[in-house]
């Protein structure tokens, strides 16, 4: 056998394996997208997955690690077994307990095939040398061994088991919402130990000051009154006019994750969320039940809030608050209505930090005013907006604004 023929035989023998590896990596990229890995593990957009981003918790900041293929500071030298163990059990490469800011409590549901596909794709991410900063947790929460006790009360390891009494779509949605997408990590309230309060699953929660919405089919505070096409549009574009616009952490989720999911997967998630037990919110009111367009000349109103609105907001959202494309209205909006609850947190944080949400369909941008406006001015502006366009029960003051300003985002 000549050398050329021998080489050809070797190449042909390797082709099926190469094709499988490429398919596995491509599927892994989709799963990494669905898992929202980029949002937490990217501090600098120019260095995706290089870590370094602080994740705020009530106990201090946890810094997301480098998960590029760098062998020294990333996960390039990790074995598949070490990767799977970290994802499913919250155990690091050297046997250290990981903090649940990393959602291993949800990823424990993932299948072998999906985890290995994610690992295969992450191995193709260009290496970036970037050491992870030290966490800034207060004592005793900086003692990793305590996570063993935490896990006893708040972690139930195990793979996802399909429910034979449910449809294939429901089961796929459950796998995505509860496992890979780990929606409950932001949308479920937590107990005093930081574990998820399962009795109010997906009923809404507070994350770094942001109010994450109620994803249950409750009709006033949740998604019960939303149509499927509205939910689909929100998850794929971040904008559901008349319902809500993705802001804060949810804007990142849409931009880096859900906009890339297939329509079938998004519909499966919607089908599952519609079937979870509804969680009512005390004193919640439909956002369409309050707020009205301004029909008088705002500039003639002798209040600091009105003057600030006219100067900083009206150019985009209009003097009446009804907006004009591409700028959304403030009347009956999810920010001013605060998702049906009497709080201004989302509104204040949007004013402080702005909006930067880019999808395949649109680029939504609002400037941040943290450097231009004082706490007193932001409080006055927020109170004017909620009184005029939103829920008049929702008020704030300079002290509350200062607290939100100080939070790590």
UniProtKB/TrEMBL annotation:
Cross-referenced InterPro entries: Cyt_c-like_dom, Cyt_c-like_dom_sf, Cyt_C_IC, Cytochrome_c-type_DH, Membr-bd_ADH_cyt_c
Localization, UniProt: Cell membrane
Domain Cytochrome c intervals: 23-126, 168-277, 300-389
Organism: Caballeronia jiangsuensis
Transmembrane segments: none
Name recorded for this polypeptide: Cytochrome c
Keyword Kinase: no
Main subcellular localisation: membrane
PANTHER family: ALCOHOL DEHYDROGENASE CYTOCHROME C SUBUNIT, BLL4482 PROTEIN-RELATED
Keywords carried by this UniProt record: Cell membrane, Electron transport, Heme, Iron, Membrane, Metal-binding, Repeat, Signal, Transport
UniProt signal peptide: 1-21
Domain of life of the source: Bacteria
